[in-house]
Amino acid sequence: MTRRTPHWPELEIGRHQPGGNTSETLKYLLAQSLSSHAINDFAGFRYRANMRIAPCRPDEVDVLARLRARLWPETGIAEHLAEIEQTADNPDAPALLAHTDDDVVVGFAEATLRHDYVNGCDTSPVAYWEGIYVELGHRRTGAARDLCAAVEKRGRSLGCTELGSDALLDNPLGRALHVGLGFEERERVVCYRKLLSHNN
Hints:
This protein has helices at 22-33, 61-71, 77-87, 143-157, 172-180; strands at 52-55, 95-99, 105-114, 126-134, 163-164. It is globular and about 60 Å long. It has five helices and five strands. The longest helix is centred in the C-terminal third of the chain and has 15 residues, at 143-157.
């Protein structure tokens, strides 16, 4: 699966935000935007929804591609459809969809089973969270938490004891989401590359 930089559309945040303290900001985002019980003290609060989490069916592939394009907008729908087709028969890379009571798909999560070394983890294999997205109108309803719980359940069924993930340092909303879902930060890595010349 191609790794991308997640695009995190701005979450709906309340009026009273803390000052410049990063830790306090993350705690605020957790409390106000990512609470699974989602009863907030400002207009627009939502109650916890009853989501049904299930693997993507063949007739839902187009919906999954559209949701993927919102999370990773630098990739076109056609390429998303091709990637979904490539992983459709891979039991180690299921796509899970979140459905409302009236069976509307409002979010997805993708995870893979990694047997190579995973930064921040101590065991192998590791269930690895590749991406998650919830439609704007259904955030703060517990959908992300339910999707994450489903990924965790599958990881445990495959013998995993850890769930790995990552977020860019300049992506505070993505980092807050991880904190809100119970992840702990383990390490920070700087990636390098050197182009190889073929002229010698």
